[in-house]
Amino acid sequence: MxxxxxxxxxxFFVYNLNLRxxxxxxxxxxxxxxxxxxxxxxxxxxxFADWYKRTEHMHPVWLKHGRDGHYYSSFPIALPLLLTxxxxxxxxxxxxxxxxxxxxxLARICEKISASLVAALSVVAFLALARKLTDSRTAWLLALVxxxxxxxxxxxSQALWQHGAGELALILGxxxxxxxxxxxxxFLFPALAGxxxxxxxxxxxxxxxxFAFIAAYALFSRWRAGQKWLFAAxxxxxxxxxxxxxxxxxxxxxxxxxxxxxxxxxMLEGAAGLxxxxxxxxxxxxxxxxxSAIGVWLWFRGPSKPHRAIYLICLxxxxxxxxxxxxxxLWWGGFSYGPRLLTDVVPCLVILMIPVMRLVExxxxxxxxxxxxxxFSIFVQSIGAFCYPNGHWDSLPQSVDQHPERLWNWRDNQVxxxxxxxxxxxxYRLAWACLTGHQSLADALHHQDVKLW
Length: 453
Description:
Elements lengths: L1 H14 L12 H12 L6 H10 L7 E3 L5 E3 L4 H6 L16 H34 L2 H13 L2 H6 L6 H20 L5 H16 L4 H13 L4 H25 L17 H10 L5 H4 L4 H12 L6 H19 L19 H6 L2 H9 L1 H23 L27 H8 L4 H10 L5 H8 L5
Antiparallel strand pairs: 1-2
């Protein structure tokens, strides 16, 4: 227990070393909703939509009109609902009387703490899962890969994207499957596996891909009928709540997000971009995941191993996830750092490394290659945490959303430009100004021209 607490503390500390969130407009509803629920007792975000229009001169596409004419989150609200209890100490605030900009500032501060907390919890959960699948030493090494050599650091821990909570739900779902095998007649772990699946889908609809394979395992396993029904009931409950909310607020099952036309991209181009493009490729930003592919080859080639179903689920979920997002028109994930959309399957990618780890431990050349790719992956993720969005690669010289051909420019790629631009120093200047009493936080923000959205 002490070692897991230490791991959580280290991950949480490292995730917060940059002293800032790295938010997007897409994460704004998840940042604001817990505050509005605890202190304002409402799901509506009208005053913030007006604030964005008035002060930022933009239309916040992440907020949409519901059937009653009020503004609501364009994205699923399961994540902010789950985080709301953490905000209860702020219930005394009268946010209706606070300036909207001040509420946004407070929400962004709380967002970083919440996101890094969820990500650090997922690291501890991943260690528990890995220790069930391999020896303790390898499990700790893989936890390091998951925590600091993947988008868990540069994406999940930096803002309330849905990815961090999706990773945690997936890890818990897989862990519950393993634990259910340890207690063949029990009902607790099938129920928790189903609940993880339902919550994961409610958090992000695309999470239905990996959880569909977990559900298939539950359906075709040797579980008793009662265990299967309990899994299904626990999985259906959160998903049903999300469906009822969407129908009530927006009048349609998918909610307000127009996903249909977005799933009409060129799959070959998208797959190549997700894996090897210089500004979004998984193997460019996280070359350590080359060992996941080698691990799959060794797993098929070698003798049968324990927990075969877990490896099959991870392989199927990873393959299906890549193909799903390859079909997405905006496979690069908009303005973000690296292969953001593949963050959801990072736990599976790390688990798929397990078969190759014995080779890494027994061979010096393999050990050197693994260490080199791991170090480079950590370095690239640190650039995302400390430097991005300096260099403004996403928007200059043209928006990547309007000119996606820029994603294939090796001379001007996101990693090199962000690194050349150097770390974002504004948070440290703000902290120094506040700690020394030279300026209030509001004055320091104004002086540094900090954008809150």
